[in-house]
Every structure is written in structure tokens, then in C-alpha cells.
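[[Per-residue structure]]
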Amino acid sequence: MFKGIVQGVLLAAALAGASVVPAPAAAAGYPDRPIRWLVPFSAGGGSDLATRIVARHVGDTLGQAVVVENRPGAATIVAAQETVRAAPDGYTVLTAGMSTLALNPWLYGKLPYDPQKDLTPVSTLVSLPIVLVVAPDSSLHTLADVKGYLKRDQPGSYASLGVGSPHHLAMELFLETIQGRATAIPYKGTPPALQDVASGVVPMMMADLAAARPLIQAGRLRAIAVPAARRSSQLPDVPTFAEAGGPAFEAAAWQGVVAPAGTPADVVETLSRAIVQALRSPEVVKQLTLQGMEPTGSSPRAFAGYAREEYERWGAVIRSKRISAD
């Protein structure tokens, strides 16, 4: 389903000169004051940058300031709770992604919010592609080499950004698909993890394309394949897993926008259309693409359906592998 959402709003048409979507008709009297947009991560990261780029355009469209506030902590739970407690009036929204909507309910036994009951989907925002990388001097040159390494009698290892992260789960899904074995080596951040992969301390990693691409282009990492339906426009020479002879599975981190449950439908629709319009702006497309992100954008209903599909898909992996963040 997400492939359709991406294709519908990835904006190739806009870049080719397609007509601009009309400005959204505002709900009666909305907005008449600034909108607060929470980000569950620290300033300067990919989700924060994507939010700030889009928020400026949304503010221009709606004629009100959109104030971005960072509320990091507890695997996005801090920001999610703050959003749930906010008045459902359209003046508080949250950048929410895989962890908030699809992973946390499975990873935590006592999650203090229910993503399907306490939050209202507004629109998808961006997809953050993942790429499988190894050291440039590694003996693993192809996906067949990687599969052979992971299916040895002795378990292999890989760098991970922590229990239940999209990168961790992408590798676990791959391992389950090929019936391989490997131990996750946890890291607190992407830079040190990629550095250890580049130097051969850890054999491989499913990494954010945005973070890995500069190292790949500099020859400090070797890209093996991308877990996607089609090649990345930013790494056109790197095959998909299916093209490389592996399983045809898809895995990517993603972000969307939600509001407190009970937010009026006309307000949600106004916000959704403003976000989609921003994501169809050639300027926004260029800015996000340079950051290694793919603009998406969707109707509230499409986002709700996609989030539910991801909840079920990754829940099956988490249950099968008995993964827990508690």
C-alpha cells in the first residue's frame, strides 16, 4: 500500500511541471492562531529537518505560524503522551513514525498510549530508505556472500541501533526470511555504528541511506543492496534485494503526522491537504531528497491503513523473534 502512496505523492509529476494542488479550504475559523508541531527527536536529525522544511510551507499555506518543538525521549513515547494530552483542536500535531505507531505497542508491555485509539492520522510525511552496507575491503561482495555468511553454523553479527529500531527489525526480517543467524551489536547512534562497519569491527549493518550515502560515495562503505521494491534514485547502481538474488522484501523507516484523537475531521483534512501540498513543492522535494529522504504525503485514511499494515507486519516479526524493549 505504501508503494502506492509514495508513487502518488513522490512528486515526479510536480518536478515535470504538473499543476499545483489548490490551497486547502480551511475549516471554519481554522487556524486562527499558531500551530504547535511536536518532534519526538532531538533537533538536527532527519525527522526534525523534514518537519521543519514542511512546517514552513504549511504555515505559508494556512496563513499561521507553525512552531516546531522537539520533545525527545523514551523511544518517542514522551512526545506521543504530550500529543495525546493536548486539546483535539488541530493546534497540536506530532511527527510520528514506525516506533510511535507500529513498533512500540509490541515492544513495550505497558505502553501509556494506544496509537490506534489516542491518535488521529493526518498524512504520511517521508520515507527514509535503508541500505545494507559492509566495509570496502570486506570479503562480502554480493548478497549471496552475505547470505552465506549469515547461514554458517557459527552465528554472524551486525551493527544495530538498539532493540526494536527499524534497522534492527529490517535485519531480523532478512534473517528470518533466509533462515540465517546473527547477533545484534547495539550502538547508541548511527555515526559510531557506521564507523565500526567501515573499519571492519562489525561485518555489516542495515543503515539509513541518508547517513550511509556520503560514506558509500567516498568509498568508505560498500553498498550491497536496498530492501525496496525499486532502486533508490540516490544510489541507482545499487540493486534491490530481489535483483541481487535475495528475498523480495521491503523495509524502510518512515514518518507521518498525527493529531490527538477527536480532532474534527474537517480540521484534519485541512491539515492533511496543506501537508500534501507542501510535499508537492519542487523546493521541498529538492530539500528532502538532498537529505536522503523521499517525500510521500497521503490522505488521513490512506495513512491509517498503511500504519495498520505496518503494525501487523512488524508485530509478526517482533513476536516471532521475541523482541522486547522492556
User: Anything to note?
Assistant: The beta strands are 35-39, 66-70, 92-97, 119-134, 156-160, 182-186, 204-208, 222-225, 252-260, 294-295. Residues 1-24 have pLDDT under 50 and may be disordered. The longest strand covers residues 119-134.
